[in-house]
Design a protein that fits this description.
The chain has 387 residues and is α/β, with parallel strands linked by helices. It has helices at 5-23, 32-45, 106-123, 143-149, 152-155, 209-227, 266-286, 306-320, 335-341, 369-383; strands spanning 49-54, 58-64, 73-79, 129-135, 160-167, 175-177, 180-183, 185-194, 198-199, 234-243, 250-251, 254-263, 290-299, 302-304, 323-325, 344-350. Helices cover 36% and strands 26% of the residues.
Length: 387
Amino acid sequence: MPIKNRFAELLPDLTAIRHDLHENPEILFDTHRTSAIVADKLAAFGVDEVTTGIGRTGVVGVIHGKTNTSGRTIGLRADMDALPIHEETGLPYASKTSGAMHACGHDGHTTMLLGAAQYLAETRNFDGTVVVIFQPAEEGGGGGREMCEDGLMDRWSIDEVYGMHNWPNLPTGQFAIRPGAFFAASDMIEIAVEGLGGHAAKPMNAIDTTLIASHIVVALQSIVSRNVDPTENVVVSVTSFQTSSNAMNVIPQSVTLKGTVRTMSAASRDLAERRIAQIASGIASSFGGTAQTTYTRGYPVMVNSDEQTAFAADVASSVSGSCAVADQSLGGEDFAFMLEERPGAYILVGNGDSADVHHPAYNFNDDAIPAGCSYWVGLAEQRLKVA
């Protein structure tokens, strides 16, 4: 099952959809225009059921096969939201919304799943039901979790669920996947350091929070180097250091540290949470201050199921000729919430030689659309094969 000719015919129309979505990016759950376009397109394609408002602004479409002797249903998911980034591509279809940009290719993801939905509604060459899932708020909002909490899996009796993301510097239209832990749990930390403010010329009369916080920043890296099993992947990043005073001659009363923690297992996640609080509190106490740590758990580890991963790799190989083994990613992905509820697999499709995702010069490669559409259709037709 190579790339289907139908998608070469549809490519101009699909490209136009993608460029329109790129010009009009929407952030987190505010995907009102995008969601409306998706719902309208699905209805025009003859999708049997279109439901909006799942996970606030998510859209779900149901496509019945020519037969349903198996009674099985698979879900195919794409994300719709953009990022709060000012675009610097210079493209003729660049973002018209200041401070918002499709810098992660979700415009392409949405387009590829729309193309697949159109084809599946036309042909219906499968036995069972395909549910196409268009999700808001992947970029930090937890839209996948909210769709699941709205009953996504049970309401449509989804047995398995599949996701896909473009990947810069993987050859265009090629695929890569891995079983097991694939994308990291992504958590947030905030450490409030309290001391005693004072005059910079009289440090003996103060408890210097800048000094305390600096020691904490350095010491937190000992979690990775000395507490975590060296075969585990863990990243602790302090990304913000804010003092309560900006004056050059004032020792600040307080400092706030913020950052992220990326882990690939539940054990490492628990260890990192515990050690961050211990290190911050211990160091602050040794200097006569205090440190209060707030650890907020975000997306869980995204774990691909073995059986579904092997199947997805076979389908991808039939489309592009091969499917590579992907490296683990320390990025977060809220498709993890869907994989916690149902078995499934998440795959990468090559975006070619491009700027990395989340960069202001990034752009989704339209040449990847036929491969992505063909992969989605292959999943449906092969997993729900007509007898």
